[in-house]
Structures
1.
Amino acid sequence: MSECIFCKIANKEINSNLVYEDESVVAFRDLNPQAPQHILIVPKKHVANITELDDKNLAAHIFTEVVPKIAAEVGVDKSGFRLVINTGEEGGQTVNHLHVHLIGGRKMTWPPG
Ligand code: 5GP
Ligand code: ZN
C-alpha cells in the first residue's frame, strides 16, 4: 500500500475536505490555508511532480476543465486567483505527489517568497 499522503487522500484512506472529484482527479482544501480559498488539485494516479507528468489528456483536463470549474464554484473566477505548482526542493515542494494549488479570495503579491 502506498505511503504517499495524497494517494491516501485520493483513495479515501485519509479524510479531507473534498471540493471536487471525478474519475482522474480529486481536489480538497489545504490543511494550512494561505488565503480564504486554498484548494489542492491532485491527480488520482501517483505522479511525483510536474516533470513526471506525461499524460497530456490529464494535463488538459486539469487546466481546461477542473481549474475553471473549481474557480467558479468557490467564487474566484471573476476576481482572480493564483495557481502554484511547487516543484522539487528549491521549488518548495513538501509533498511528492503532483498538486496544483488554487489560491484566491484575497489580493496576491508578487514576487513570491
Ligand atoms: P507543497 O509545499 O508540496 O507545494 O504543498 C503541500 C501542501 O499540502 C501544503 O500547503 C500543506 O499544507 C498541504 N498538506 C499537507 N498534508 C496535508 C493533508 O494531510 N491534508 C491536506 N488537506 N493538506 C495537506
Ligand atoms: Zn501519491
2.
Amino acid sequence: MELWYTEEQTDSVRFSIKVDKPLYTGKSEFQRIDVFHSKEFGNFFTLDGLIMVTEKDEFIYHDMIVHVPMATNLKIKNVLVIGAGDGGTVRELTRYDSIENIDMVEIDKMVVDVCREYFPQTTCKLDDPRVHLYFEDGLRFIRSKENIYDLIIVDSTDPFGPGEGLFTKEFYGNCYKALKEDGILVNQHESPYYEEYAKSMQKAHKRIKELFPVCRVYQAHIPSYPSGHWLFGFASKTYDPLTDIDEQAWNSLGIKTKYYNTDIHKGSFALPNYVIDILANEGD
Ligand code: SAM
C-alpha cells in the first residue's frame, strides 16, 4: 500500500509527497503537528496540514530570511526572532560571530520539542549560549520592548490560527517601536501566486509600508511551499538592501551558503510585473 501526504494548497489545487514512514503525530494547545519521512524531501513536518519545513529545501528559506538583512548591515548585534520553532533561522544567525544576542519567541514549545527529535539539521544551534528561548506569544512579548533590537525576523505560520496576530498593524507598530533607530524588520511574506495568499501578502505590505520609510519585497523559489514562489518583506528605518549591501565585507566573512550569494541578494528584489502590480494595488 502506498502512503501519500496531500496538502490542499487552494480549494482546487493539491500537492502530494509520497511518504515512506509517518514519524509523529500530536496535538498541542495551538495546532496539530505531523512529521513524515519521504524519499524526495527527507523528513518534513506540517502544522495544521501545511508544510513548514522539509530537510531538502529548508536551506533556501533560512538563507534568504537571514543573510539578506545581515549582509545589508553587518553591525547587527541584537536580534529578535518570532516563531521559527524548527530552529533553522537561529542556526543561520549563529554563523555570525558579530551577533551577541538572539531572543527567539515561539508560541508552541511542542514544535521545538518535536523538531529537536526529528530535525537535528535545523535545531542544532538552539543551545548556542547567545540564544534565549521564550515560549510565549510574539504579539505579547514585543509590546513591552522599546528601542532594543537591530533586527527582528518574523518566521511565522500563515495569517490564521496562532500566526494571525503577527500580520496586524498593531504588531508591525510594536516591531517599529522595538527596533533601534537603524533597525530592520524581515518577515515571511506569503506567496503572490494563489489568490488567498496574494491577498495576505498585499495586506501585510500595505500595513508595513505605512510605518517604515524603506519597504521592499524579495523572492525565492521554495519547492515545497504553495506554488513554489515565495516572498519575504524587508522593512527598515534607514538601510536599503540594494544600496547598503556591503558585498565585499559579506564575502570576506567566508560564510558558506547553499543558496544565498550577493548576486542573488540583489537579483531577488527584481520582481515580476504581476507581483509589482499586486503590491502597488493597495487592496482593502
Ligand atoms: N518556515 C515556515 C513557513 O513559512 O512555513 C515557518 C516555520 S515556523 C515552524 C513557524 C512557527 O511560528 C510555528 O512553530 C508556530 O508555532 C509559530 N508561531 C505562530 N504564531 C506565533 C505567535 N503568535 N508567536 C510566536 N510564535 C508563533
3.
Amino acid sequence: MSEVIIGIDLGTTQSAVAVVDSGFPILLADKQGNTLTPSAVWYSDTGEVKVGHEALRRSGLEKVHTSVKSLIGRRAAESGGRLEADGRIKTAAGLKLPEEISAEILAELKRVAEHRLEATVSKAVVTVPAYFHDGQRAATKKAGELAGLEVVRILSEPTAAALSYGLDRLDESSRVAVFDLGGGTFDVSVLEMREGVFEVSATSGDTELGGDNFDEAVACFAAARLERDLEGLDPMERVQWIAEGRRVKHVLSEAEEAIFRIPFSGEVPVSREIFLGLMKPFLDRMESCCRRAMLDAGVSGEDLAAVVMVGGSSRIPLVKERVARIFGQEPDLSQHPDEAIARGAAIQAGILAGTVREVLLLDVTPLSLGIETMGGLMNVLISRNTTIPCKAGEMFTNAVDGQKSMKVTVLQGERELAKDNWELGSFEVQFEPNRRGQARVGVEFRIDADGILSVLARDVATGKDTVIEIGSAAVDVQEAKVEQMVSESVEFAFEDMNARVFEEARLKAEELLPAVGMALEQAGGFLSEEEIAVIQDARNRVERAIGDRQVAELKASVEQLDEVTESLAAMLVQKATDALFSGPQD
Ligand code: ADP
Ligand code: MG
C-alpha cells in the first residue's frame, strides 16, 4: 500500500480531515462520531490542552482561543490588539504564537486520522484561503510541522472546493466561481481550468463577514426587543445569547419562524422577514465582493460553467437566493457545505500520493443498476456503461400513510420490470411514520474504484443512514450473461415498455380513484346528475381497463377521468376557501 497523505481543512471556525479511500474522498470522524472539529483550543495554566468540542465546552467560563486562523502569519499591528507586540497570544499557559495554537488543532486531526486509519500519518495537504500571502502560508506550514505533519502542499480553499466539485464535470478551459461563506469569513473566487489544472484568476472576500455576524445580529435584535444591551451582558451570558442567536439562525434555514428564548429573560419570535432585514447589510457586502471578483476576472455570470457554493452559511436560503441573482444562474449546491474543502484536500493528497491517478483509467458498469419501485418497476440509478468510480442518488417517498419502513431492493439489468432483472441484495430502511408522500428517503449508489457497490439510504428527516455493501457483483459479470441480458432487453422491448406504461397508469389510477370517490362525497351535491354520471362512467372505464389489463385503454381512461374531475377539484378548493372566509361553523 502506498503511503497515506491526509487532507485537512483548517477552518476559521471548524476544521475537518479527509482521506481518499478506494477512489472516494471521505471525512474521518473522531471517537464521538463528529466529522467537524471546532477550531477552538483551551489551555490550563499547567499546560494541559483541550481541542474542539471539549475546548468549546469551557467557553464563557474560561479563555478559549477561537478564530486563530485570522491571526496566523500576521503582525501585531494588523491584529486589532489580539496579538502582543511580539506577535504572540496570551494564553493561560503563557505566550504562544498563532501557529503553535493552530498546531494543536492539526495535531488533534492527525490523531483522529490515525485512530480511524489505524496507521501512523506523517504527511498532509492543508488548505488556506486564496488571499493568504506568503507569510500566512508559511506560518500554516509551520503549524503542520509543529503538529508532526509534513505539509506536502498548501492548497487554496477554492481550488479544493473545485476539485471536490469534480474535474470530470468540467470541460477543458472552463471557468467556475467558488462561493465560500463560513463562520467568520467570506471568500469568493473565480477559477479557470487549464490543462486539467485550476488557476485562481480572481479572488475577493471579507475577512470579517460570516455566520458569526449573523448570530450576533440575531442576538442583538432579540436583546433590543427584551430591552437588554448585548454589550452590557457579562461574558458568560453574552456567549449564551449569541449561541441562542445561532440556534435561531439555523432553525430559520428550515422554518419560516423561530423563537429566541433565554430562560428568565424572555422570548422573541424571529421571522424570516425580520432575519432578512438583519441580513441585508451583510448580503450587500457579499454582493459587492462577488461583483469585484467577476470584474477582476473579466467574466460575467454567463461565462461561468458553475457557481459552487460551500461553507456552512451557504445553507441560508436568503444567501442562496442572493447568489442566484448576482450570478444570474442557479448556484451548484451539490457539494456538502462543511465537507467540500476537506474532500478537495484529500483528492489533492491522493493525486500526490499516486492513489487517485489510477482511478482515472477505470472500467465502466457492464449493466444498469437501480432499485425496485412501486408497481414492481426498475428505477435505474446508474446506467450501463457509466465510468467507475461513480455515484448517483435519488429521493423516494412512502406509498402509504403511517408507513414505518421501506424495502430497498437493489437490481441489476436492462429490463423494465424488476422481476426480470437480477436482485443483488435488499434491505429495510426505517423512517419516521408519516403521511403518504411525506417521508423522504434518499438512496445513493456508489461504486468505488475497485468496483465495490455500496448502497446508502438516508431518512432525510432524521439523517439516519442505512448502508449495505453489495460487493463487486455489480461489475464482475460474465460477458455471456451481459450479452444475454442486453439482447433480451431488446427482444422484449415492446412487452417491457407496455408493462411499464400499464404499471405507471395503474399507480396513477389507484391514486385517482379513491380521491375522486372522496371528492364526490364532499362536493357531489354541487354537481348536476349529468355531471355525476359522466364522472361515474369514467371511473367504471378505468376499473374495467385495470381488470382487463388493457394498456392503451387504461392510459386513455385515466386521462379522461383526470379531465372530467377537474371541475370537481376546483369546486373543492372553492369550498375550502369559502369555509375559511366564512369562519368556523358549528
Ligand atoms: P469556517 O470555514 O469559517 O470554519 P464553516 O464553513 O464550517 O466555517 O461554516 C460555519 C458556519 O456555518 C457557522 O457560522 C454556522 O453557524 C453556519 N451554519 C452551519 N449550518 C447552518 C445552517 N443550517 N444554517 C445557517 N448557518 C449554518
Ligand atoms: Mg471554510
4.
Amino acid sequence: MSAELAISCSAVVKVYEADKGVVQALRGIDLAARPGTVTAVAGPSGSGKSTLLRLLAAIDSPTAGDVVIGGLQIAGASARVRRAIRRRHIGYVQQRPSDNLFADMPIGEQLRLVARHKGAARSEVDRLAEGLDIADRLGHDPRELSGGEQQRAALARAALGRPSVIIADEPTAELDLVTTRAVCSVLGSLARDRSVAIVVATHDVEVMGAADHVLFLRDGAVQSETFEGRELAVVDSTGRIQLPPEVLSWYPGRRVALEFDPETSTIVIKPT
Ligand code: ADP
C-alpha cells in the first residue's frame, strides 16, 4: 500500500527539550496521503500542527516513529539526506505571502528562474500559471498582487519540479475571505492535475472544506478525522481514543465503566 502513498507517517512522536523541561509536542500521529489529494491538519494553537508539518517537510526528524516521503524514510536520515529528500520531493508554502517570493522581481521571472534551477521546462510555468489563474499577473512584482494571487504564485513555485508533496503552513492565515476562497478553489485541481499530495495546516473552515481529508489535532494527538464528509474518532495504535472536549464534563471523575458488545463490536462508555 505504501507504494501508492506520496507521504505517510506512523506512530510519530516529537519531544522538545526546552528550558522549562520536556515538551511532548506529538504523541503518536498516523497520516497517509495519496497523490492527487488535499489533507488539512487542523487544531487549536499549540496542538502540534507546525511540528507535524516540519516533520512532513523533512525539516526535522521524529523522536520516535517514522515519516516516509516518496518511499524514503526520514527517521535516522542525516541532515544532508533530509535536504536532498526535501529538494527532490517537497514544495513548501509559508504563511506570509511576502516570505514565499522575492519582492522586486516579476512573478513570471521568478517562476522561470526556479523552473531552470529545478530542471523543469519553461512551459511548466505557463501551464501552472494558467491552472492557478495568475497567467495575466506574471509581468507584475508581488507587491502589485493581492495576497491570494501571491499565495497562488507561491503554490506554482512549490509545484515546479514535480514534487511528491506540497506542504503549506497556514497559507490563508493573512488573507481575507474572498482571496482565501480564490486559493481554496485551486488546491484540489492543483493536487489532481499534478498528482501531488497537498498537506496544509489551517484554522480556516474554507480550507478544511476544500480538503479531501481533515485531521483534527489536540494536545499532539489526532482527536478525529473527517473523511468523505464523515467525522471519525481515531483509535490509535495503543488503543487510545481522544474524546471531544465538549463531552469531557460527562466524566468528572475521569474514571469510566466500559461495556462491550462483541456481537456488534460496540463499546458503551458510562460515568462511574
Ligand atoms: P501549533 O502549530 O498547532 O500551534 P506547535 O507545533 O507550534 O503547535 O507546538 C506544539 C507544542 O510544542 C507547543 O506546546 C509548543 O509550545 C511546543 N514547541 C513547538 N516548537 C518548540 C520548540 N522548538 N521547542 C520547545 N517547544 C516547542
